[in-house]
Amino acid sequence: MRDCYCTVNLDQEEVFRTKIVEKSLCPFYGEDFYCEIPRSFRHLSFYIFDRDVFRRDSIIGKVAIQKEDLQKYHNRDTWFQLQHVDADSEVQGKVHLELRLSEVITDTGIVCHKLAARIFECQGLPIVNGQCDPYATVTLAGPFRSEAKKTKVKKKTNNPQFDEVFYFEVTRPCSYSKKSHFDFEEEDVDKLEIRVDLWNASNLKFGDEFLGELRIPLKVLRQSSSYEAWYFLQPRDNGSKSLKPDDLGSLRLNVVYTEDHVFSSDYYSPLRDLLLKSADVEPVSASAAHILGEVCREKQEAAIPLVRLLLHYGKVVPFISAIASAEVKRTQDPNTIFRGNSLTSKCIDETMKLAGMHYLHVTLKSTIEEICQSHRSCEIDPVKLRDGENLENNMESLRQYVDRIFTVITKSGVSCPTVMCDIFFSLREAAAKRFQDDLDVRYTAVSSFIFLRFFAPAILSPNLFQLTPHHTDPQTSRTLTLISKTIQTLGSLSKSKSASFKESYMATFYEFFNEQKYADAVKNFLDLISSSGRRDPKSIEQPILLKEGFMIKRAQGRKRFGMKNFKKRWFRLTNHEFTYQKSKGDQPLCSIPIENILAVERLEEESFRMKNMFQVIQPERALYIQANNCVEAKDWIDTLTKVSQCNQKRLTVFHPSAYLNGHWLCCRASSDTAPGCTPCTGGLPANIQLDIDGDRETERIYSLFNLYMSKLEKMQEACGSKSVYDGPEQEEYSTFIIDDPQETYKTLKQVIAGVGTLEQEHAQYRRDKFKKTRYGSQEHPIGDKSFQNYIRQQSEVSTHSI
């Protein structure tokens, strides 16, 4: 049996790690990881490790998906065979090389040829066992010769700058013996090649580690005497052959990868304006936003970009109010109100996820953490009780947990975000107006979202809502399941509580909560969050925890004496202050008020020869911090920037490098108070809850319309059919909601025209990019398969934008 965990890597940089599943050969992780990718990459890799308490964890195998293949597996559950991990499977990085062939006339007047191989630099080499001290060997090889030369070792960098030139004699004067391996006829030059091997200088007894190679035949110099290009490193041709992949097992993954090319804002004006006025269209089913929901295969894929766009422009409440009112009018039974997976339900779900995440954390996080840490048994099913467990004690423990969570939820109404309250107010009014004889419908319309789709799922799967870092252990998961069921039933206000449970033990347990005070508390809470005149949540003084975790920081020089060394610290960011301490829960060693943060920017790697560093600039000094990986660094920078965006004294310029040895490394200014030499990066929205790019969301909506263009055309046909034919509706058109065929057709015509214009702009951009791009450039090194695919695609007509 093994104790296994899985890591997610961009190339070989770890950006996420699952929990450890102990004593299992078939571990189930069920963990979701989402990130914006902050840099270019070639492979998305997944490594499976076997934990070893006494030695370094051993690698069982890996799955590496090339970037150009990610679309092939997009949003599909796929089993991948694990591959062996060796030096050849771990090759990454690129090399900048120049070859120059020249004729040299000897003292005797004889002409010979010499080759100059100049290796400029490498980028993105792998880090082996926590370090990278690379060097290169340059070899001129042929059928009868092999001459190698070596660069200097560059310490502690995976982006070495070599800039070394090596000279090789390609042909020698004929005075040499015919049998000499130096004597080559002119046509034999084509049989020679330059091989560049990258190695990591290691102190281990096993020798230096192979990092990659490239082979260039000298016949590339036929057209020109010089040749300069970037190359991707490749595995060795004679690399070790892997064993059968079945020997290692397989890994099930669902990868969702999207890549957007976003134009400037003015390109999207026609389509964006059409979407933003959706709430004002009568009927709302004829609006562009509603049409998007009709043509998409899943309502969820339409709701995500749509809600983000409408939130960004402050239009989400009127739109959701309009589509909710239309859905309520079509509902016949008050008991089924908002129960389906309609566009309304999906839009409200997405709005709660975006606007309510901090509210959820403030309300539940501390209680959920305590439940996870206490490991108290709360099993109340007599069949599942373990030996030595007491049913009454377990039931009491569970009752206490339910009481605590119920209390924090029902007392949190004043903290509920305004946008959620405005939506709940419109749901309540629409339901009460439609079903005037049902006095409870005004509550159930709201509780079906806030309890059933917000709090209950967060309690059941806290890791999906960032309430816990990983999936909980089986015992805690069972406890949270029982709590979630009870909270869901308490919030539903159903008239027959016990009948809500299939299990008799749950019905017995629920007798604890049959008192009227629980129903009254739920109604008071629902009244508060669905009333238009509630208290503004901005008046709440309780700090909101935005982010926390271990990072490495450099001493700031607050003390006059002492080394400015690097130390691991626990960092904590709230909307009030940024602090660090030795360990989680300790007293802060340093506290930086948010108003004292003047800028948050990346720090150039050359400053300390350390990757993923950034700086928090204060009035007197800068705090230099190293994050664990590139994704985490970007997340910290974005969050710190957002929360400090409104500071009046924010800087406009900064120093991208550190102040060391009496000067700034970037501009060489000697004064530590010298003004910055580089403009600060663009600011982000001040709203700490939402970071939305409206143009990017419009681009995604355009992509969806373009993808489902055939359905848009089919919907046009349905509008025409409904306008001229009053008989039974044709089956192929019955899936569309069309209340006003003429208005809907008019909107469809505008949508199709807007999408067509954007498609022409994308096609022109691709043509222009193709003309300007050079194969072998730093952006597209030789060996870049994605660029080779891109070249092939230029001859094809694109059907949609990715």
TrEMBL record:
Organism this protein belongs to: Dipodomys ordii
Name of the protein this chain belongs to: Ras GTPase-activating protein 3 isoform X1
Keyword Zinc-finger: yes
Keyword vocabulary terms for this entry: Acetylation, GTPase activation, Metal-binding, Phosphoprotein, Repeat, Zinc, Zinc-finger
Domain Ras-GAP: 298-492
Domain C2: 1-80, 91-231
GO process annotations (BP): intracellular signal transduction; negative regulation of Ras protein signal transduction
Domain PH: 544-645
Keyword Ribosomal protein on entry: no
Signal peptide: none
Domain of life: Eukaryota
GO MF assignments: GTPase activator activity; zinc ion binding
Transmembrane segments: none
